[in-house]
Structures
1.
Amino acid sequence: MAGHKEIDEATGVETTGHVWDGDLRELNKPLPKWWLYTFYVCIVWAIGYWVLYPTWPTANGYTKGMLGYSQRATVTEEVKAGKAAQSGLRDRLQKTALADVRKNPELLQFAVAGGKAAFADNCAPCHGRGAQGGNGYPNLNDDDWIWGGQVDAIQQTIQHGIRWQGAADTRESAMPRFGLDEILEPAQIGDVADYVLSLSGGKADAAAVERGKATYAEQCSACHGEDGKGNAELGAPNLTDAIWLYGSDRATVMESIRTGRGGAMPAWAGRLDPVTIKSLAVYVHSLGGGK
Ligand code: HEC
Ligand code: HEC
């Protein structure tokens, strides 16, 4: 058949000489040259790739290629470089006195970024993602501080926690349970609640406020202050600023007086490393209410 090339009448194209079913002839239409050469180039390129780069799996690994390239090694190296760049800043943060961190913009930025990330992981479940707080959990954005808003006071709170059992230096102070321990009669609690509400401009019965005022001076002023402005040494909140940890309605204020509350926060020393705690203190301090 070879050599017997004919021209197909209908198309005018040369046939290969193959005949099927007695009368079907195959037209000779080779692949275009550009396609064929591209294909050859790809084969050559692939062989070059096999030689140079890791490609074929073998029984106990894979062919490594002449260049010794490895994605894993590249990533490991990049991570190492990133850590090295960070560790310079971490070292400096560790060595810098807490109060001096804000004097160095680069260090401050590093601490705030690290503190923000650690806050999202560890603190947001209680204090909220934006540190806005919630019932029983203080808002950390305002300048109303139960335990003090200086950066070192904030760090101490984070480190040792508040009323946290097992933490030796935890912040400790308990408001008496005036109702549960029957120190005051329910009526007296109502009156002193009215007086407390009047301190922040709340509406209250004048006679009750007067009666409550006497009880307050006797039972409450030692911790909350004669003027009701609170005392950070004792963790006694300011009662005059209309910012409430537990709520501002009369029933809630009465409940605070009845039970003494006693909110607790975990100590973080030992769970978080000192640089992270320092970063958290700087971050919380930077939220707007830091003193
Ligand atoms: C299990 C819940 C919980 C977690 C988690 C928690 N806190 Fe607290 N935090 C509290 C409570 C409750 C208080 C208020 C305690 C009180 O009544 O005095 C508080 C108080 C504070 C205060 C004192 C505020 C003030 O006005 O003086 C700071 C600062 C603070 N938290 C920061 C943090 C940081 C930073 C983290 C994360 C490392 C964190 N907290 C994680 C529950 C929590
Ligand atoms: C020994 C100190 C101490 C004494 C005395 C004391 N308190 Fe307190 N008080 C505290 C502390 C500490 C808290 C914070 C409790 C907490 O954070 O869970 C507090 C919280 C409160 C709160 C809740 C404030 C809020 O923001 O929700 C009210 C209201 C209050 N006290 C009223 C009184 C009244 C009224 C008296 C007197 C009858 C009194 N306290 C006596 C220490 C004291």
2.
Amino acid sequence: MNSHPQEPDRSKRVPSAVPTRAAALMVAIFLGLAVFFRADPVGQGPALDAIPPDDPAFASTLPARKARTEMTFDGAPCKSCHEGTEAIQGSPVEKGVFHDKIALKHGRNKHCFNCHHRLQPANFSDFDGSSIKLADVQLLCAKCHGTTFRDWESGAHGRRAGYWDASQGKFKTLVCIACHDPHWPVFKPLRAAAAPHVNPRTRKAAGAPAHGEPAEGGRR
Ligand code: HEC
Ligand code: HEC
Ligand code: HEC
Ligand code: HEC
């Protein structure tokens, strides 16, 4: 005797189709809702803000500043005023009128001659008074920022580009002063790009913008 229950005969099952009328009703309801939301007769939400086009500078891959390649001041080489036979005089802190455009904001490092060479105005000064050329300016920074310099040498600090795989080609490094202004090395706050759209109604719910701040997701 066969103990297995009999397989149901699928071919004879009645297909459980949705009744045609109900289907038509559902389609009609969805179309109605689409028209309702499109026309928005209740809310009449405010128009979306126009997002100002991004500054093309945001897409720039250039370093933060242009590294100087020669030591000049107002187009004149340093030695046109500083002869170099005598140590430059003057109080480094209370600097005079000539270089007063230089804002020296380098923490406790506030003496011109911590960096500049007293006898060779176009060069920089190492620990022992020997000179460092502009082309090797990272050695000047290394004198006080040893750990950052080590990171930079190994590629962990500063932006390294070119090839990682030495068999393919060389890597490129950017020198410290291509990013940091030596006189004011901390980065100034960056300007943000325009925010994306938010639903203008939720923006209203977020309340008035705080002083000087754009409203949530909105612009001033
Ligand atoms: C047009 C003339 C002129 C040129 C060019 C010039 N300097 Fe000077 N510099 C002066 C004078 C004048 C002083 C004396 C103090 C002052 O008025 O700032 C001075 C002072 C200095 C000092 C000492 C800080 C102080 O104020 O005592 C440093 C460092 C210095 N200069 C660096 C340079 C370097 C580096 C260059 C080249 C990139 C340069 N200067 C080019 C005129 C010049
Ligand atoms: C942290 C080291 C450091 C200190 C401190 C420093 N400088 Fe400089 N300075 C540099 C370097 C590096 C350059 C060349 C690179 C550059 O300009 O980007 C330079 C460039 C200059 C130049 C030529 C470029 C320009 O901006 O006109 C002048 C002039 C100058 N320094 C004067 C001074 C004077 C005056 C002081 C003191 C008030 C001073 N520096 C302090 C590192 C320093
Ligand atoms: C004579 C020593 C000395 C030299 C040379 C020097 N620095 Fe500095 N640097 C300092 C000191 C001191 C500070 C401030 C640290 C503090 O006040 O906490 C500082 C601060 C900085 C900061 C900000 C660090 C922070 O944590 O916010 C940067 C960036 C920097 N230096 C970059 C440079 C670069 C680039 C050079 C080479 C052009 C350079 N420094 C050369 C002594 C030096
Ligand atoms: C490609 C750009 C770039 C180069 C090249 C670069 N830095 Fe920086 N550095 C930065 C940025 C970005 C920061 C973070 C700054 C901030 O938060 O304000 C920074 C931070 C620092 C600080 C602060 C402490 C830290 O480690 O975060 C020091 C000191 C410093 N740099 C020194 C140097 C020295 C010295 C060199 C060259 C040997 C160098 N930098 C090269 C971009 C650069």
